[in-house]
Amino acid sequence: MGNGSERYAVTPRILILGGTREARLLAERLVADDLAVPVTSLAGATDSPGALPGEVRVGGFGGVSGLTAHLWQEGYAAVVDATHPFAARITANAAAACEATAVPRLTLVRPVWEPALGEHWVDVADETAAAQALRSVRVSANQRVFLALGRQRVGPFAKIAGVNFLLRTTDPIDPPFEGCEVIVGRGPFSLEAEEALFRRERVVALVCRNSGGEGDAKLEAARAVKATIVMIRRPALITQSEGANATGGATALDVDAALSWIVECLRRR
Ligand SMILES: NC(=O)c1ccc[n+]([C@@H]2O[C@H](COP(=O)([O-])OP(=O)(O)OC[C@H]3O[C@@H](n4cnc5c(N)ncnc54)[C@H](OP(=O)(O)O)[C@@H]3O)[C@@H](O)[C@H]2O)c1
């Protein structure tokens, strides 16, 4: 009979706050590299989120106190916050709960999009400021402004008279205001198709949030047609530099860097 220590060699579990492509890639790599069991947490907004390796839990935790209790209960080796850069509440909650429980935390955040030289790029704080910025963009009657925003965020644009807007939604909806046409489409979109759409619809300005990441078709299409880009910056909490971030935890800009952090974290246990 052995000394029994092997019975306690439990594979560490990592809580991944997910809902993004990066969260899925990280879960896949943790399993493929046999590093840890990923437990991906989803908010529950999507009906069919697609298969994920490891364990999956769905639904809110119940604020900071709920997440804190969950962390005490589950004994994770670490938490990786791989939520969308605009999902600020869960990021703040994760920071507070990890601090309370002393569970190591990493924020996996996509690099922000930056303007290229010579581009007409307007950096704004929110949708209201974006609508304000559009007032100085010349949009003639046969041209459009493309709103790459959720339908619940387009209210401020309703007040701009004489500008035609194009809003893309995943499910058919009634136009949210006069002068706003809705098209239905579910990404990912190819650059070719997106550029063709921007040319066909004579898009002269794009309004979007700085979600970041590589190869974004709408951004590249806007660049190709030389449209004005009105970019809504991220919540102040979500910074993008490697190392410490505004929430006091560590930051990684890609899945490889997140994996290195996890390896180091497990080594130190
Ligand atoms: N915001 C976007 O544009 C966007 C885009 C793509 C994907 N997503 C994904 O959709 C989710 C919701 O986004 P949001 O902007 O509504 O977030 P949010 O405003 O930061 O969070 C709202 C509440 O939803 C719950 N929640 C959020 N993410 C969760 C997760 N991964 N697991 C468990 N509960 C979660 C939390 O509820 P409790 O307080 O009850 O714990 C949180 O307080 C995020 O996970 C995000 O990664 C968001």
CATH class of the largest domain: Alpha Beta
N-to-C order of helices and strands: EHEEHEHEEHEEEHEHEEEH
Are any ligands bound, and if so which? NADP nicotinamide-adenine-dinucleotide phosphate
Overall residue-averaged pLDDT value: 91
Total strands: the figure is 13
Helix content range = 25-40%
Contiguous runs where pLDDT drops below 50 for at least 5 residues: 239-244
Global geometry: elongated
**Tally of discrete structural domains:** 2
Strand order of the largest sheet: 3-2-1-4-5-13-12
Q: Biggest β-sheet, characterized?
A: 7 strands, mixed
- CATH superfamily grouping of the largest domain: NAD(P)-binding Rossmann-like Domain
| Distance between the first and last residues' Cα | 27 Å
Structural class: alpha/beta
What's the helix count?
Answer: 7
SS strand fraction: 15-25%
The CATH topology of the largest domain comes to Rossmann fold
CATH-defined architecture of the largest domain: 3-Layer(aba) Sandwich
Q: How much is the radius of gyration in Å?
A: 21 Å
Offer a few descriptive terms.
269 residues; alpha/beta; Rossmann fold; 2 domains; seven-stranded mixed β-sheet; six-stranded parallel β-sheet; 22% strand; binds NADP nicotinamide-adenine-dinucleotide phosphate
